[in-house]
Amino acid sequence: MALTFYTNPNSRGRIVRWILEEVGQPYDTVVLDYEKTSAIDEWGGAALERPASSNPSEELVRFFTAINPMGKVPALVHNGRAVTESGAIITYLAETFPEAGLSPTANERAEYYRWMFFAAGPVEQAVTNHRAGFVPAPEQEFFFGYGSYTRTLDQLEKAVQAHPFIAGDRFTAADIYIGSHIGWGLGLQTLPPRKAFLDYIGKLVERDAFKRGVAKDEELIAQAAAARAA
To answer: pLDDT (tens digit, 9 = 90+) per residue, 114-154?
Structure first.
């Protein structure tokens, strides 16, 4: 089964890298660079560098035209079919490779899907708006799926305290997604270092697959730095 992973090591691609390592299937990695101006962008350089060529047979051209015309990573192509959006990729891989044991059991399914979509919706929106300095007025909160940044964090805190893992007593793909949001937020200081968040992410980062994924992304970062210096 052919898996091709499109990413940049300084992106949400790290989330997908983690589950690819958990799944344990062979995959190819295609690194897409950010625009040169993104290196000094205080927001982290979200714009990918588009190819000058328009040749549809070229890998990067195919990415921007057929795989994800929005020009965002991560993306995955599995047996010729593209999957985008981190949460969707994680769910897809967990279900496609059930032998990895990352999908929920019947008893775990409610919590699993509840918190996966909570992270993809309210958490993503609340944290992004908070980082951008956008704070809805109290009378505007009902317009937004997350209500307020504080209420979203309070709910997330309760979720990670309810069980040893997000869906119950064992690690699932939902922990990859939610743990990545929490880890990323703590690193960027867009989430406060609440004890519940620190305790939760602390046990996730001890997983061998997580460490392998970090090592591979750090190697890509080092290679890029060496190429710039040459």
So the answer is: 999 999 999 999 999 999 999 989 899 888 889 999 999 99
User: How far is the C-alpha of 39 from the C-alpha of 45, rounded, in Å?
Assistant: 6
Per-residue pLDDT band for 101 (boundaries 50, 70, 90) equals: very high
Distance CA 146, CA 81 (A): 32
Q: Are 90 and 150 in contact (CB under 8 A)?
A: no
Going by their DSSP bridges, the two strands 81-84 and 3-7 should be labelled as unpaired
pLDDT score of 156 more than 50: yes
Q: CA 38, CA 56: separation in Å to the nearest integer?
A: 26
C-beta of residue 176 within 8 angstroms of C-beta of residue 112:
no
Q: What is the rounded distance in angstroms from the CA atom of residue 43 to the CA atom of residue 143? A: 25
Q: Which residues contact 83 (CB under 8 A, 6 or more apart)?
A: 75, 76, 77, 89, 92
Check if the beta carbon of residue 166 is closer than 8 Å to that of residue 144: no
